[in-house]
Amino acid sequence: MTRHSAEARVPVLFVVPAGLGLAILLLPLASLLARAPWNRLGEILGSDGVLTALRLSLLTATLATAICGVCGIPLAWLLARGSFPGRTLLRGLVTVPLVLPPVIGGIALLVAFGRGGTVGRWLESATGTTLPFTTAAVVIAQSFVAMPFLVIAVEGALRGADRRYEDVAATLGASPWTIFRRVTLPAVAPGVLSGAVLCWARALGEFGATITFAGSFPGITRTLPLEAYTAIGAGDAETAIVLSLLMIVVAGAGLGLLVPTVKRVAEKAPP
Questions:
Q1: Are the CB atoms for 215 and 133 separated by under 8 Å?
Q2: Tens digits of residue pLDDT in 137-190
Q3: H runs (alpha helix) in the chain
Q4: Contact 190/269 with Cβ under 8 angstroms?
């Protein structure tokens, strides 16, 4: 029996649960397509509220991803390469936002950065700045829920990278920063890109922590998910459906660009 024929055989017991799994994943998306008001698509997408929410979502998700990259890549390096007490505990804490209910995350952000919060109280007294219910609050909420995706992806890439090239660079007198910038980072670039795209997609779809910490103010904090929620609350199901499809298209386009981009970067990375 050839390997190909062995792989082609599908156990009968897998067919039914696999089909149910596909139905759970694809039926809601198919229902959106079936119920979409195609005759009003241009009208809804061209409305001021939708365009404003789209611009705000793209801006905040991109800023949140940049923050996650600047902070998350060094954090991933510490988790993958560092040796210090409590590293396992720290790794667990970093992944908490993945399993934390988004609304609870929003409450935690309020407790930390609200006007009477741990940091918020000091920030207001020192600078007169308050974060809740501002665009900055949206970025912070998105960063909080999305950063673990980037950290996990980059940490996995760092653990799998061949460290011999870094050792050679060190013996040639390269500084730690030069080694990281010229050797380590190019070697794990596919992992960084994968994590960044997943991080951006998660930030784009963030809802619970955002509405709790930043509220829903048009042009300031009302991103696409919040705009869809507002439409549902107002009884405008057609607008909510169109916004849902728009988010799927935007997020899907980002994820669709991931595979060829990562492939090109991987081909250029050190062997």
A1: yes
A2: 999 999 999 999 999 999 999 988 888 888 888 898 889 889 888 888 888 888
A3: 3-8, 12-35, 41-45, 48-81, 87-94, 96-99, 102-113, 120-127, 135-160, 164-171, 176-179, 185-187, 189-204, 208-213, 224-233, 237-268
A4: yes
Q: What is the dihedral of CA 159, 97, 219, 197, to 10 degrees?
A: 20
User: Which of residues 258 and 220 earns the better pLDDT score?
Assistant: 220
C-alpha–C-alpha distance, residues 186 and 182, integer Å: 7
Length of the chain: 271
Q: What percent of the chain stands above pLDDT 70?
A: 92
φ, ψ of residue 134 to 5 degrees: the values are: -130, 170
* Of 140, 130, 129, nearest in space to 66 by CA: 140
Question: What is residue 269's predicted lDDT score, i.e. its pLDDT?
Answer: 56
Q: 187 is written with which tokens?
A: 């070697």
Residues 6+ apart with CB under 8 A from 121: 115
Tokens linked to 168 = 């050679």
- Terminal Cα distance for the chain, rounded: 34
- Residue 1 pLDDT class (50, 70, 90 cuts): very low
Half-sphere exposure of 112 (CA within 13 A, CB side): 12
Contact between residue 45 and residue 242 where contact means Cβ atoms under 8 Å apart: yes
Rounded-to-integer distance, Cα 48 and Cα 256, Å? 28
Contact 192, 185 (CB under 8 A): yes
